[in-house]
């Protein structure tokens, strides 16, 4: 599976659906391993911590976020730390997001923004 091929496009669509559904729920972390399992259940073998996973998260986040919108991938965290991986914070500081602040403040602000924008009561 490579960015741009049909298999990647299908996995990206599935990842977007999962993330868009997840952010409407009361907050609970979505572990990389759980996301991997959910993608596998939909027919996409995506390892939790290697291969296309970081690209899927980046592309889904870029497709559904920006400077004036929250980052969907903020809910995806490492089981060991309960926080996103370093790739999330790197993406957050790139265009179009350009998020300021230290990692913890940035991430908590994204979660609060998702809460306001996407979650139902």
In short:
With 121 residues, the protein is mainly alpha-helical. Strands 1-2 form a two-stranded parallel sheet. Helix content is 50%, strand content 3%.
Q: What strand line-up does the widest sheet have?
A: 1-2
Strand content: under 5%
Q: Over all CA atoms, what is the radius of gyration?
A: 13 Å
CA-to-CA gap between the ends? 38 Å
Helix content: 40-55%
Oligomer: single chain
Biggest sheet details: 2 strands, parallel
- Summarize the helix and strand pattern as letters: HEHHEHH
Number of helices: 5
How would you explain this protein's 3D organization?
- Helix 1 crosses helix 3 (53-63).
- The longest helix has 17 residues, at 6-22.
- The protein starts with 5 loop residues before the first helix and ends with a helix.
- It has a two-stranded parallel sheet.
- It has helices spanning 6-22, 32-41, 53-63, 86-92, 103-118; strands at 30-31, 76-77.
- The protein has 121 residues and is mainly alpha-helical.
Topology diagram in text:
Blueprint: H1 6-22, E1 30-31, H2 32-41, H3 53-63, E2 76-77, H4 86-92, H5 103-118
Parallel strand pairs: 1-2
Helix pairs in contact: 1-3
């Amino acid at each position: 599976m490579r960015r741009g091929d049909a298999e990647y496009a299908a996995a990206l669509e599935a990842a977007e659906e999962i993330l868009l559904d997840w952010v409407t729920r009361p907050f609970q972390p979505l572990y990389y391993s759980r996301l991997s399992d959910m993608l596998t259940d939909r027919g996409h073998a995506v390892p939790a911590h290697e291969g296309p996973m970081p690209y899927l998260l980046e592309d889904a986040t870029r497709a559904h976020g920006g400077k004036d919108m929250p980052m969907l991938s903020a809910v995806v965290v490492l089981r060991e730390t309960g926080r996103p991986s370093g790739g999330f914070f790197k993406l957050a500081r790139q265009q179009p997001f350009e998020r300021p602040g230290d990692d913890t403040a940035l991430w908590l602000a994204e979660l609060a923004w998702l809460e306001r924008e996407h979650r139902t009561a």
